[in-house]
Every structure is written in C-alpha cells, then in structure tokens.
Design a protein that fits this description.
Structural class: alpha/beta
Number of domains: 1
Largest sheet: 7 strands, mixed
CATH topology: Rossmann fold
Bound molecules: S-adenosyl-L-homocysteine
Strand order of the largest sheet: 5-4-3-6-7-8-9
Radius of gyration: 16 Å
Length: about 220
C-alpha cells in the first residue's frame, strides 16, 4: 500500500459513509494535504510497512495514530482556512498536527505524554513544519494564552465537551471532538459556535478513540 492507495481508501470510505457525513467527497485542499504529508514519517520504524493502510497503528505509551480516513474527515469538519489558528488536543504522533499545519496559519498542539510531544516536535523540525507550537499539558484546559481559536480538534475521546475548549473557540469557530465513555460507544461531534456565541453540537458518526485522560500523570508545567 502506498500514499495513493491510502487516498483511494479514504475516498472510498467517504463515499461509503456519505449519508452520515453529509457529503460524497472531502474538500480538495484537505485531500491535497493528505497527499503531501508523509504518514510513514510519523509511525514507529517497525510499522512503516503499514504506514499507508487505512487503519490506526500503535505509537507507544498505549496510544495510536488515528486512521487516515478519520484524520481527513475531522480536518474537513473544521473547514480550515489559510488564515486560521487551530488548537489540537492530543498531539500523539503529530500526524494530524502536520496535516493541519499545511492548511492553516498556526497550529497549537497539547499532549500530556512528554515523550510523545517531544517526538512529534522532532519530526516537525526535521520535515520543516515551522508553524506548529507544542505544549505538554492537560487538554481539558485547552491553551488559553493563544485563544480564541478558529478551530479546535480533539483526538482522544472526552466524556463530555470540555467547557474550557468551548470558551476558547472564536464565535464562528468549529470544533471536532469524539465524545463518549472510554472503550465504549463514542460519537464524533461537530460543535459550532455562532456569531452571537450560541453553541450547537451535532453528532456525525460513531467512532473508537483512545480515552482522553482526566488527570494526566505527565509533567504539566513543562513547555
Ligand atoms: N492525533 C494523534 C492521535 C493520538 S491518540 C495522532 O494521529 O497521532 C490521542 C492522544 O491524546 C494520545 O497521544 C494521548 O496521550 C493524548 N491525550 C489523552 N488525554 C489527554 C489529555 N487530557 N490532554 C492532552 N493529551 C491527551
């Protein structure tokens, strides 16, 4: 399986889920970013052979790099624009971060496992993705210093929509977040804050994410 095979599989799954996601094709800019960013750079060495398969893969620390279809879909849900500033919760491998960095002005990404955050930062540096800022911390609190954000993406399953994240979303902004109980049924939600600050949440489809940890054990003060 190569990068083109991955794109074909994403298009196929988009088509297959078109009634749920309300479209038969994702935004062309999003698919272009999926074509450009080398997913094999973000998976552990022993996983390279499966890097372009349309499935999640283990990245250590009990975490996974999300399935390419889900990465593309959640990116599309944000409707990312070239001037947008985006907050990501759950850096993990850094792959989703890299995709967003190709579509937006700045990406701020929070991860509570220090080693994962550092590993992703190394890859960003090596590949020349210089519009990303990483932070070690608890994503339930967001990153208030750079708020408000045009878009927020959460890549671990939360038990509820965190109030701090809603607060850090700009009016007119969009958030993509899986909500549900750990290792149980979760719904990928699209949360929209309208120009007057009213918040609407719609469920898009059932998903399976690693849980978002309430009280992370990592060092929260490091940057
Ligand atoms: N976007 C990543 C997904 C990684 S899995 C990728 O495609 O590689 C989800 C990540 O969320 C894990 O790395 C996990 O450590 C992190 N995470 C879980 N709970 C968190 C929390 N409360 N704050 C910050 N990061 C969290």
């Amino acid at each position: 399986m190569n990068q083109q095979g991955m794109l074909d599989d994403i298009n196929e799954e988009v088509h297959y889920t078109r009634n749920l996601i309300g479209k038969d094709a994702l935004d062309a800019r999003v698919m272009e970013a999926m074509r450009k960013v080398p997913r094999d750079e973000f998976v552990p060495p022993d996983m390279k052979a499966a890097a372009f398969a349309n499935g999640p893969l283990p990245i250590g620390h009990g975490q996974t790099i999300s399935q390419p279809y889900i990465v593309a879909l959640m990116t599309d849900m944000l409707a990312p624009g070239p001037e947008h500033r985006i907050l990501e919760i759950g850096t993990g491998s850094g792959y989703q971060t890299a995709i967003l960095s190709q579509l937006c002005r700045e990406v701020y990404t929070v991860e509570f496992v220090a080693e994962l955050s550092a590993g992703a930062a190394d890859i960003f540096k090596r590949l020349g993705y210089d519009n990303i800022e990483t932070r070690i911390g608890n994503g339930y609190q967001g990153w208030p210093e750079h708020a408000p954000y045009d878009g927020i993406i959460v890549t671990a399953a939360a038990t509820h929509i965190p109030a701090a994240l809603v607060e850090q979303l700009r009016p007119g902004g969009r958030m993509a977040i899986p909500v549900g109980q750990p290792y149980s049924h979760q719904e990928l939600m699209l949360v929209r804050k309208d120009a007057r600050g009213k918040v609407l949440a719609d469920s898009v489809l059932g998903v399976a994410f690693v849980p978002m940890v309430e009280a992370p054990t990592g060092n929260l003060d490091q940057e």
